[in-house]
Amino acid sequence: MDFLDEPFPDVGTYEDFHTIDWLREKSRDTDRHRKITSKSKESIWEFIKSLLDAWSGWVVMLLIGLLAGTLAGVIDLAVDWMTDLKEGVCLSAFWYSHEQCCWTSNETTFEDRDKCPLWQKWSELLVSQSEGASAYILNYLMYILWALLFAFLAVSLVRVFAPYACGSGIPEIKTILSGFIIRGYLGKWTLLIKTVTLVLVVSSGLSLGKEGPLVHVACCCGNFFSSLFSKYSKNEGKRREVLSAAAAAGVSVAFGAPIGGVLFSLEEVSYYFPLKTLWRSFFAALVAAFTLRSINPFGNSRLVLFYVEYHTPWYMAELFPFILLGVFGGLWGTLFTRCNIAWCRRRKTTRLGKYPVLEVIVVTAITAIIAYPNPYTRQSTSELISELFNDCGALESSQLCDYINDPNMTRPVDDIPDRPAGVGVYTAMWQLALALIFKIVITIFTFGMKIPSGLFIPSMAVGAMAGRMVGIGVEQLAYHHHDWIIFRNWCRPGADCVTPGLYAMVGAAACLGGVTRMTVSLVVIMFELTGGLEYIVPLMAAAVTSKWVADAFGKEGIYEAHIHLNGYPFLDVKDEFTHRTLATDVMRPRRGEPPLSVLTQDSMTVEDVETLIKETDYNGFPVVVSRDSERLIGFAQRRELILAIKNARQRQEGIVSNSIMYFTEEPPELPANSPHPLKLRRILNLSPFTVTDHTPMETVVDIFRKLGLRQCLVTRSGRLLGIITKKDVLRHMAQMANQDPESIMFN
């Protein structure tokens, strides 16, 4: 009797920081499915169980959508309140934000809708003064103190409870989805701490967003729910299908863009994305968006703060400034990626990395001190983007809408003609210019600190500021020089020709595209944000231009650059391998190295195998007929060998150190007094992936990418010559690109 006929615990699982074997996971799932189908014909109960198994995927998606949407709503509400807490407090109920406080007040007038007796700034509360230098200084100090308190709490919680809760999480999720295992990265503690600290860091006013971390939060929800169903918890390949869909739900609630979320998961984070996952991602994104809409965190029945609608069409001549914004986005993306990676590398390799708390405190203090005097950096970044995207209507009180009105104007409210800029617009322009420079510099140092930090919102803010300034410039040019040939055909005096908010939106898309190199999903997210289908062409023009410009300086987006910086074993599907090397150049052992560690099919004892396992740290061993013939039989995983021997010693009588181990169907001929042999054929992979020594590396790289292999054996005429692992492939690719091959290790 082969004791392995009954499955034993932990077989088929992987160690931490190892790569999964996609082919093996797929075949195990096929076996499981076949077993369920054949059993379902036996009885009604088995049939019901098979139905439940088929539905479990949709149930998991429903649960992910509900939890992700709820968490996003709670985060939005908490951020709203805590951001306002830095400036003042509501007397009627301290848990109300500024806006909610003034909603409930009866004394609020339309002109002074930001002022109401129930909302008091800190200076009014503490020293009963609302104007003057002393009130300003007190408010300034309170703003800095609250910001420092929030940031200190966040970095301390991350450091003590969940070190994996820092950063945006997207580089790691890309790596996990490609088949790498990082235990605890999607755990319950990470979920809890990331949700709490995300509220704290966004409220502290640091130059970061919550959108990237929301993808991580949604993937943590996905991991939690998939562990409740054995179909997903016992199969790492199936679990990754759930995580791909969870990433879509994360973007869906971050931007209120369900379709954009599905496309983001497909274009940016997923490695293996079958059609079934596409439908499930769509469902998870839909449920998440619906849940968030039910919570209605912004009180405007929209899923995001910066939802806008424009009423004027765009004209062909405007494509030129849109493309210029695309160029700016590409240049900013390149500058940001290079500077941020250089700074993060410095943090990794110098003493700076030993003081994460101090670094966060210093950056927060600098941010708060410089941000407070400028109204555009003092408000939260989402509010800033909302103001920049806005079209100037008759009811706008923003400085950006301080135009000089024509006293004789009689027009419908939403079609206000282009007007000359007033003092407020010029003040806003130089404040925006200063805010732009500040945002560009501070974001480089903020992204990558030991706190949750997203990159979508700061990138969009940089682009929106640049875009709004360009938009106002074009608008004033068209107003004062409407007789120029470029304006003559479409911009008559008294018409509403140019929408500066549209330029802000195009700039935001261009900068986000320049940093992340997204194209299709980016355009869809932006038009879902604005609800304007007619602006797809300007957005596409800007997104494509920014990608071209950024790609001209280097193919890596910010997430790929961080994957390389951290040395994760990630084979990017987008990279091309064009070098003319062969499998024999990459395989181990090389000339001068000791021979390959192998197992023989029926001549090694248990002790020999245990010694081999102890002396080496390989993930598995090829099994050959004999050391002389080197003819390949199969491949045995290290972890399964250890578990099988341990179980055999406990459960099978007569297994001792000098028992012969065999991988054949029939036991070998043994002397009469020899101990009981141990049969391990069940754990042997009889169809390991092999290539010949003359296979071009281009083909080998393609095989590793498309099939998700861990290792591949190199043979000639059936004789084993060597082995190529995923890390060997990555090292070889790094070497060919003149990079340090030793950086390809999880460090």
Automatic annotation (TrEMBL):
Name of the featured protein: Chloride channel protein
UniProt keyword NADP present: no
UniProt subcellular location: Endosome membrane; Membrane
Classification via SMART domains: CBS
Keywords: Antiport, ATP-binding, CBS domain, Chloride, Endosome, Ion transport, Membrane, Nucleotide-binding, Repeat, Transmembrane, Transmembrane helix, Transport
Record PANTHER family: CHLORIDE CHANNEL PROTEIN, H(+)_CL(-) EXCHANGE TRANSPORTER 4
Entry keyword Membrane: yes
Primary gene name: CLCN4
Topology class, membrane: Multi-pass membrane protein
Organism ancestry: Eukaryota, Metazoa, Chordata, Craniata, Vertebrata
MF annotations from Gene Ontology: antiporter activity; ATP binding; voltage-gated chloride channel activity
Transmembrane regions: 55-79, 140-162, 214-230, 242-266, 315-335, 355-372, 428-448, 455-474, 502-527
GO BP of this protein: non-motile cilium assembly
Membership in a protein family: Belongs to the chloride channel (TC 2.A.49) family.
Pfam family membership, one: Voltage_CLC
SUPFAM superfamilies per the UniProt record, alphabetical: CBS-domain pair (SSF54631), Clc chloride channel (SSF81340)
